Amino acid sequence: MSAERSSLKPIPGANRSLRRRLSLKQELTLALLPTLTVLAVLAMLEAYSEQRLLFASLASSAFLIYLDPQHGTNSVRTLIIAQILAALIGFSSLWLLGAGYTAAGSAMLVTIVLMILLDVVHPPAVATALSFAFRSASENNLLLFGFAVGLITVLVLLEQTTLWLLARYNRASSPNNVSE
Predict the structure, then answer these.
(1) Which of 91, 118, 124, 132 is the most buried (most CB within 10 A)?
(2) Model pLDDT for residues 59-98, shown as the tens digit of each residue
(3) Is residue 128 packed enough to be buried (19+ CB in 10 Å), middle (13-18) or exposed (0-12)?
(4) H/E element, 48
């Protein structure tokens, strides 16, 4: 898919290593999936949980996926391992140390170190660890969070597919496109 990404025009005046800019219609198309996914997750939470803030980190994950679906930080492996690991660490810190700053600080430090050691750095997972350590005293929230991470994982795949389709559409509609 890197060939598709290279066919997109760069943001004017931007460093070449930065993300390439799509047309406004394409940007909105790419942003639509994360937005709908987060809204679906929020609706699910409203129906099954009172821990709305707990899932804020997943909204950050969704936006990072929109920003650059092909970056290693947003890979399916990284997203799943980092978010689930952070939830388990936060929940364990809460259980061992009780709700508060000690549990949250411990959860944050352990999460950061393990993400680095396992090469699964996904910054929104730090917020997940903090959220679980501060407040989520229910195993049901842990299971619900796992399901929500699954939905965000599907989003990664949808975003990569959308990006691929947009790049193919750009090549097909380009006036320089030569058929063989």
Answers:
(1) 132
(2) 888 888 777 777 888 888 998 899 999 999 998 999 999 8
(3) buried
(4) helix 24-48
